[in-house]
Design a protein that fits this description.
The complex is a heterodimer of chains A (428) and B (328).
Chain A lengths: L1 H15 L6 E7 L6 H22 L7 E7 L4 H11 L12 H14 L3 E2 L17 E2 L5 H15 L8 E7 L2 H4 L2 H11 L2 E7 L7 H10 L3 E5 L3 H12 L7 E3 L6 H4 L10 E4 L8 H11 L14 H24 L6 H9 L2 E2 L1 H6 L9 E2 L12 E6 L4 E4 L8 H18 L9
Parallel strand pairs in A: 1-2, 3-4, 5-6, 5-7, 7-8, 8-9
Antiparallel strand pairs in A: 9-12, 10-11, 12-13
Helix pairs in contact in A: 2-11, 2-12, 3-4, 5-7, 12-13
Chain B lengths: L2 H34 L6 H16 L6 H8 L12 H22 L9 H23 L16 H11 L7 H23 L1 H11 L1 H6 L4 H27 L9 H11 L4 H21 L1 H4 L4 H15 L14
Classes of the chains: A alpha/beta (428), B mainly alpha (328).
Chain lengths: 428, 328
């Protein structure tokens, strides 16, 4: 009896003791629904990186990390519900993984004092840190992506694309329309003809669009698509015998999912990317050892090294590095979302640091600042090899034309500030 | 003739082909609605489930491998075989029949003589269940479906039209196959419905459950039969659409393309599904070609519904639907 009482007492004391501090990183994922094939590998990569840190390094600065997954189904309403239901659990930074959810969360996160990281998606003008104090979209955004794509076309045409015809095939949504303004400005600057070809959601039927492309014979087609729109577009391009190496997708139109269904016909298709592909990096040996082989992988492990897995991994690495920076700046291990924001704003990713992390050359070096939450916007071109079933990075990282983009970012951020009565802060 | 005219003609022909693809999905809805008065919300998901199962069986994937691996720490993925397409299609059809039996046993049997809205709600539940089951059984990644159907431009048509008109028409070979398959399906189903004992029984059940029961028709058998046929039609639709885009969970959204077809053709007419599909296909493509550029494009989705609504104003039962007169 005494033993039982003593056991109960110990259990009660343990239950009442404060929980060990954890660094909480919510993951608004979508593993179900029409876009699951894209959401699952990203979520796996994001979760596996934090598992690796816990298992190999004991967390960040000695504090364990915790990933809370919440299923959004890529649905904006559910995404907001996920945010509301997890923000009270010590969330340090949100990665909404949807432009629609991002637009809803920008004012909420600002009011709650929790930073957002919309890596390669979301509201482009969030790159302006003077207006968007709590939102970050480094290392690249859509406008920079549009400029990088044009840079590539300039590159392969000896710097002269005057009179060339470029068509933009885009998802008829806020996301798909993002690059239009930038491309219109670039078309004025470089003298190319731009034609705009929208595709309605979800994009399963694109016959009209590809008949138009077959007739107009553009020299290049750029694509801003997601989900089934990508696979159908690549198949239809093959159907009309459009040269695949003249078909360039944004980074959300360049995963294995997008090209595999078309088989050999997808050979040569190109897409932008702001990080490395494949698993020829030392970090993957650690992921295999500490995460996959240990049975702690978020998925079945067969996604490791795919484009979207690597993107999730890269996003997690950037979040972890910002948390580490926040610990240094605040002088405490158990950081708050406010500390995290400061860490993100002071983040510097160098080649030396990426090498130290087992990810040499995985992405461009860059530095975030108070005024620039958008990073350098550099992206390289990856090309699909259908026989080997793999992507290969075939160019260096292109630097976007900030002379064109910066005024657009400034104008959009100022308009947002005016609409929302925000006084831009000084970053001097 | 001007190039503009030939292009319009090409758009129209491709519209007809796209319409056939919509009709393949609409057919499944019509069959079930005809036999039981149920608007089967799960028809799109049935096409997805059938296509997932087909790829899984063909490639020898182990069902529920992800769940088994996560639970027991195993590393299962495939049985190590690859089946010929025809065998995989037959086995998938058998799975769809089994599914029809289970749906009748666990869902429909308990809802005899309930209001149509109750049955409709049950099919919503069924859609969610099948989507989740498909995910658990076969995983959520996009799969390539290859049952040997040709894809890409028909070079024969391109060459012939080029020789005749000086303008090479684009027609996708997959669309031609879909048109032939749809024609065979509609003819067989119409003959079945009109001239076989089961077909007549099916129509009797559609008219009145209780009256059909009173003359000795087995309601349960008819329901299994009709859900099996609808399952087979879903498999055909899943093969055609899955070949085009890969088998993925957005396949369930093809149901959205079938709705205006049903509204226009009528919920109870098998030929109506085809004619409705053709009208919607041609209408949306020509509208996109003629008016799209003036309004910023991407008109196809909403135009299909507007066109169907216009028809509804004049024929609420659709072009070929039965006029329902209820006397109080």
């Amino acid at each position: 009896m005494k033993l039982k009482l003593a056991t109960l007492a110990v259990a009660a004391v343990m239950a009442a003791a404060p929980a060990m501090a954890e660094l909480v990183f919510p993951s608004l994922s979508y593993r179900t629904g029409p876009y699951a094939a894209g959401g699952a590998p990203f979520a796996d990569g994001y979760a596996d990186y934090f598992t690796l840190l816990n298992e190999r390094d004991g967390g960040i600065g000695g504090v364990k990390t915790k990933v809370i997954e919440c299923e959004t189904g890529y649905n904006t309403e559910k995404g907001v519900e996920c945010y509301e239901s997890t923000k009270g659990e010590g969330a340090l930074v949100y990665q909404p993984l949807s432009t629609g959810i991002t637009y809803q969360l920008i004012p909420k996160a600002e009011a709650d004092g929790i930073p957002l990281h919309t890596m390669g998606y979301g509201r482009t003008s969030a790159a302006d840190g003077t207006v968007f104090k709590w939102a970050f979209n480094y290392p690249a955004n859509y406008w920079q992506g549009a400029s990088d794509a044009v840079d590539h076309i300039l590159d392969i045409n000896g710097g002269d694309i005057k009179g060339k015809k470029i068509a933009l095939l885009y998802h008829n949504s806020a996301y798909g329309k993002e690059p239009i303004r930038t491309l219109e400005e670039l078309s004025k600057k470089h003298g190319f003809d731009l034609s705009l070809i929208p595709v309605d959601h979800p994009g399963q039927e694109q016959k009209s669009q590809w008949l138009q492309i077959r007739r107009e014979k553009p020299d290049y087609v750029l694509m801003w698509g997601w989900g089934v729109m990508n696979q159908v577009a690549i198949q239809e391009a093959a159907n009309i015998r459009f040269p695949m190496d003249h078909f360039i997708g944004i980074w959300w139109s360049g995963s294995e999912n997008d090209v595999l269904p078309a088989g050999d016909a997808a050979n040569g298709y190109k897409a932008l990317n702001f990080h490395a592909v494949g698993k020829d990096f030392p970090i993957f040996a650690d992921i295999q050892k500490y995460v996959v082989d240990a049975g702690k992988a978020a998925g079945s492990g067969d996604n490791v090294g795919t484009v979207l897995y690597n993107r999730g991994l890269y996003a997690a690495m950037l979040a972890a590095e910002a948390a580490k920076k926040a610990q240094e700046l605040s002088g405490k291990k158990d950081i708050t979302p406010g500390d995290m924001r400061d860490g993100m704003e002071a983040l510097e990713i160098t080649e030396a640091r990426m090498t130290e992390l087992g990810m040499p050359g995985f992405g461009p070096s860059f530095k975030v600042s108070c005024a620039n939450h958008g990073g350098p916007g550099k992206a390289a071109i990856q090309q699909w090899d259908a026989a080997a079933k793999k992507w290969t990075i075939v160019t260096d990282f292109y630097a976007p034309d900030m002379d064109v983009i910066q005024p657009l970012i400034k104008a959009d951020a100022e308009a947002y500030a005016k609409e929302n009565n925000i006084t831009p802060r000084s970053c001097n | 003739m001007s190039e503009q005219f030939y292009f319009a003609l090409e758009v129209m022909m491709n519209g007809l082909m796209a319409g056939v693809m919509y009709s393949l999905v609409a057919l499944g809805f019509v069959l079930i609605f005809k036999a039981s008065g149920i608007f089967n919300y799960a028809q799109g998901v049935m096409a997805l489930f059938a296509a997932l199962t087909l790829v899984g069986i063909q490639k020898g994937e182990i069902p529920f491998a992800h769940v088994i691996n996560a639970t027991f720490g195993t590393n299962l993925s495939t049985f190590g075989w690859e089946l010929p397409s025809i065998v995989a299609i037959v086995l998938t059809a058998a799975v769809m029949i089994l599914m029809a039996v289970l749906i009748e046993k666990y869902v429909l049997k308990h809802l005899v003589n309930q209001e149509p809205i109750i049955l409709f709600m049950a099919t919503i539940g069924l859609a969610f269940f099948l989507e989740g089951l498909g995910d658990l059984m076969w995983g959520s990644e996009i799969k390539k479906l290859d049952v040997g159907l040709p894809q890409g431009i028909s070079e024969t048509i391109e060459t012939v039209t080029n020789n005749w008109f000086g303008y090479g028409f684009f027609i996708d070979r997959l669309d031609i196959i879909a048109a032939v398959v749809a024609a065979i399906l509609v003819t067989s189903l119409t003959l079945f419905s009109k001239y076989t004992k089961q077909g007549r029984a099916l129509r009797a059940v559609a008219d009145d459950h209780q009256a059909a029961l009173s003359v000795g028709i087995s309601l349960r058998f008819i329901w299994v039969l009709v859900w099996s046929i609808a399952g087979f039609v879903a498999l055909v639709a899943g093969i055609m659409w899955g070949t085009k885009s890969g088998v993925q969970f957005s396949l369930s959204l093809i149901a959205l393309k079938a709705l205006p077809v049903l509204m226009l053709g009528g919920f109870t007419s098998i030929p109506g599904a085809i004619v409705g599909g053709l009208i919607i296909g041609v209408g949306e493509k020509l509208f996109e070609f003629l008016v799209g550029p003036m309004v910023g494009g991407a008109t196809e989705n909403w135009f299909a519904y507007v066109l169907a609504l216009v028809f509804l104003v004049f024929r609420p039962q659709g072009l070929f639907g039965e006029k329902i007169i209820e006397r109080v």
